[in-house]
Amino acid sequence: MRRSRVLVGLIIFVVMFSLVSETYGSDIGGSVNDPLVTKSYVDELFISISEKLSGDNYSSSFQNNTSNEELKVRLEKVENKIDKVVNELPDDISRKIEGKGDFINAEVYVVVEVRKDQKIVLGSGAEVILRAGEADIIVGKNGDGLADVTVGKDLKKGDKIPRQHLLISSRNDGRALKVTSNGTAYLLVKGDYKVE
Questions:
Q1: Gap between the Cα atoms of 122 and 128, Å rounded
Q2: What is the chain's alpha carbon radius of gyration, rounded to the nearest angstrom?
Q3: Which has fewest Cβ within 10 Å: 24, 30, 95, 170?
């Protein structure tokens, strides 16, 4: 009786092991499904991307060790195409790409200290939480304020900003918070902002 249980358990183990190894061990190294890639896979990917960017056929020259001068000329063509695309972007986007914008971009929440009569201007999609102090809304070009997602309403011109409420600016059109309290106000900010 005990032998039959051990035998059945062993058979079940072997079947399960073979199913698991068949399912998870079937990827070929260097394929799209396998994150560990071979040099030939990276070379093929590089050639494919290069051809798409420039419209030229790089595969033969890449594999036949084209001269450095020819590669430099082709690289300049690609760089010129990238510059052309960047120049055609709207000003606010191209300034951010080139790093010339006057906004600071906070990838995560950062503490920002703002003194009385200063304002913090928010970019599109910026999030802000007033932690300490008092502040008023400055509306955007069209008179729109900030979305108070904590209570689900829009704050308009003249509204006091409640503490500990998450506010979101939907556009980059001058929406801001003006500090009215004496001393310093402390805010948590995520996204594009600038202090004026």
A1: 8
A2: 29
A3: 24
